[in-house]
Write a structure and sequence with these properties.
The complex is a heterodimer. By secondary structure, chain A is mainly alpha-helical. Chain A contains six helices and no strands. Chain A has two domains: 119 residues; 44 residues. Chain B has six helices and four strands, in the order H-H-H-E-H-E-E-E-H-H. In chain B, strands 2-1-3-4 form a four-stranded mixed β-sheet, covered by helices on one side. The chains are: A mainly alpha, B alpha+beta.
Amino acid sequence: MDTWAIGALLGTLLAATAAFIWMAFELKDSGHSKQKHSEDFAHDAEADVERIFNDTFREELRNRGRLHFEKIIGENAMFLQQDLRLTTSELNEYMKQEMTRTLKEEFAKYEQSITDAKQIAIDSITKTQEAIEQQRQLLSEQLQKQFEEAKAQLVKRFEENMADIVNHYIMATIGDQIDLNDQLEYILNDLENNKQAIIEDVTNGA
Amino acid sequence: MAHSKTFVLPTSIISSIDVARLEREVESVRGFLEQAERRKAGERTALPKMSRMLEEIAEENAVNLLHVDQLQKLEDILKTLKVQAPVIHLSFAAEPTSAFLQKLVSWFRKEVHPLTLLQVGLQPSIAAGCIVRTTNKYFDFSLRQYLTGSKQQLIELMEGGK
């Protein structure tokens, strides 16, 4: 709005100046036109113009115009300064808002990316944990299976050789206390039980 | 064996080694007596010592040890016995005593064959009992065999003791 006022003022001044100049030229032109008829009138008019618009008047006009122009310039400079300050302030506010908004957006994006990265990391850790758990479960099952197989194998071998093992322990513990004379009755019983087979083999043997 | 019906082996004679030893002893006595018949008067002779086995066999079979022909007969019987008498192999965990073996051989001669001879071996791993081997058969009367036969019972006992 102030710019429009300055423009209008400057236009007015230029229009007034142009009117004076136009009048002067018109008067001059009219003098020239009438020169043929009356060069005296022209000369008088020129003299009157010179008399009216003399240097003092021109200087006065120039001073008034300068002062008015300076006043307008000053006012407009003040308005311009105020506008500039206001604009600067608004610009600062705008910049601040824009920066804040941009920063918020960036922070939101950053936060989102952090959240995404965190989620990805959590998913990865979860998957890794699941894989480890599966592996642990598998290993545990394999270990249990091998343990059971080894145990079964040991039990089987123990059962297969149980007689020898027990015999060995009996020998180690009471082997030196076993008296053959104490066994005579049992040996004779065994012989009695197999007597027929022994007789047949002795009788029919080679 | 022609002589086996009447001939009696004392229980002190257990193995074929005893028979061989007895045979040599009889041969020695017979040789002494033959030499004594041919000796000149006044010539000194040394009477061979006779073992308890020889005295027992002579006593149980009514053999006059001063008669060469009876000694010869006994020697022939012993030679035959050494080759033809049934031999039972017995294995024990420890060295059996003579009395123990006499009881066993007495049972064999009473129940199986009157001229049975024993051959004794050692097998410490059997722990207790014995292993009897005849010509064609093998009888395991050892504790190990007994435990093997009772394996299922042992397993049940161990399972019950868990």
